Amino acid sequence: MGLSLLFVVVISLYSSLADDNNHMYNTDETVTLWVNTVGPYHNPQETYPYYDLPFCKPDLGIETKKRPSGIGEILEGNELRNSGFKLHFARDVSREDVCDMVLKKDDARELKQAVEQQYWYELYLDDLPMWGMVGEILRDEKSGKMIPHIFTHRTLSLSYNGNRIIEANLTSENPVPIEVGANLQYTYTVRWKSTNKPFETRFNRYLEYDFFEHQIHWFSIFNSFMMVIFLCGLVALILLRTLRNDFARYAKDDELDMEGSRVMGEDSGWKQVHGDVFRPPSHLILFTALWGSGWQLIVLLLGVILYAMAGPMHGYMYEDRGEMASTFIVCFALSSAVAGFSSGSFYRKYFTSVRAEQNSQWQQAMLCTSLLFPTTVVAIVALLNSIAIYYDTVNAIPVMVIIKMIAVWLFVSFPLTVVGTIFGRHFVGKVDIPCRVNSIPRPIPNPQWYASPWFIIPISGVLPFGSIFIEMYFVFTSFWSYKFYYVYGFMLLVYCILAMVTVCTTIVAVYFLLNSENYHWQW
Questions:
Q1: Buried b / exposed e across 311-350, counting CB within 10 Å, b at 16+?
Q2: What 3-state class would DSSP assign to 62?
Q3: Any bridge partners for residue 125, and if so which?
Q4: What is the largest CA-CA distance in the chain?
Q5: What is the DSSP string of 314-362?
Q6: How far is CA 371 from CA 176, 350, 417, in A?
Q7: Which residue positions in the chain have pLDDT lower than 70?
Q8: CB 195 within 8 A of CB 161
Q9: What's the Cα-to-Cα distance from 331 to each of 78, 306, 338, 457, rounded to whole Å?
Q10: Integer distance in angstroms from the first to the last C-alpha of the chain?
Q11: 55: three-class secondary structure by DSSP
Q12: Which helix (H) or strand (E) covers residue 245, if one does?
């Protein structure tokens, strides 16, 4: 008796949990259709809540309330609300009335403007997206003029396999001219059909293989790989040939003065500054913060890419709304320990003695490291958020989300930065410099134009950008052209190529800079 009761309770709980969270339904069970956003087709970043347009709400006894959303969903501009439509699993609806409305002057003006700007809306059913146009400019049968029409009938074509929904398609029909005083009767139809397609591959129809796996994508990888080979060969030439010749030339005349620097003769080059090359960079605290933030970005991006590649284990990024933004937040918070560790160890190596440590400002360096990257992001987001608030778009960040983000930084990111800084200072920070630093800085001669930092720095940035710009095109296209980015294997390969190109370019740039006797190589 007890086992039977337990079995009934488990079955009841299982049935009550069958919804769009676990994607399992029973026959005739309620299926929720969610409305999300509406906006112009040619500007994906300008989106508004669905009911900002004067759509009438269904009179079917279902409350059109918001669906609880996570931080990631909100940051990506999603605002799901129950549509109020009556849908039941595997039950067809021939033609159901939604609501009636008489167009007022302001409503007609807004709908006309939406149709003229090609507004479209987004719906979700069991986490499957659907898109439909608000209306279309068609020829009026009475006047013969091209005027805006609004679609008043929607047909939902749904496919299921067992107790799971596999496909969801939307068709907009019955265009009606938008005129003041017009009576709009909104209706919908639902058609269900069985399919043999597996649940695991239901999102494949949204992926554009012909676009992301085009030959130009492979060509960009090959082009970047050839750049890596060229730069590696150039670095090998510098290290094996040029430096060997420099060592041979300097070995002939190695007279040192009391400060440890070579007596100035007719020769010039990188060895002239060996007594100044280990001098602390100017604005050490700021440079330390940039150093730590750079390592944090390296680990952050690598963590996001690896997590996205592990999609078969936890679910693909494109299947869950807001997962990408949530992953960035989590990886940022955890990688703060890397920022603190790298900046703390870097700052510590310039204060090796006890007397020097008394003048150390490592607390300021730690605080600057913890604030530099978040402050930059907050400044940019604040500007974009001000624009979103001004235009009242759905991308405006609510106050509660801002408070949660501050809490993540205050209780997770900042403590990890402190812990990382302490570990970096005490376990890695002590470094033995191979030569003594001169007490008097050496004057820097005027370099040739090709050895000037104003020329070296931009050129050093062009080559890494050239190795990733095609991949960035695919990434931004997925944002601006309604595509799902899924080729994270390409992204990891481009990430590795970018790292190698940056390393090789940095070696060449530092060699040219030191060879011009400029020991400010850090900046």
A1: beeeebbbebbbbbbbbbbbbbbbbbbbbbbbbbbbbbbb
A2: coil
A3: 33, 128
A4: 102
A5: H--GGGSTTHHHHHHHHHHHHHHHHHHHHHHHHHHTT--SHHHHHT--H
A6: 55, 22, 10
A7: 1-20, 60-63, 213, 243, 246-270, 353-358, 429-432, 434
A8: yes
A9: 22, 11, 11, 29
A10: 77
A11: coil
A12: helix 243-252
Q: Which of 463, 241, 228, 429 is nearest to 340 (CA)?
A: 429
Let me know: does 264 contact 256? Beta carbons within 8 Å: no
Confirm if 178 and 112 have CB atoms less than 8 A apart.
Answer: yes
Burial class of 451 by CB neighbour count within 10 A (0 to 12, 13 to 18, 19+): middle
Supply the pTM of this predicted model.
Answer: 0.84
Give the tokens for residue 310.
Answer: 């592990």
Q: What is the pLDDT of residues 323-380, one digit of tens each?
A: 889 999 999 999 999 999 999 988 888 877 666 666 778 889 999 999 999 999 999 9
CA-to-CA distance for 305 and 310, rounded, in angstroms? 9
* Helix, strand, coil fractions of the chain, as percent rounded to 5: 50, 15, 30
Question: What is the C-alpha separation between 195 and 189, in angstroms, rounded?
Answer: 19
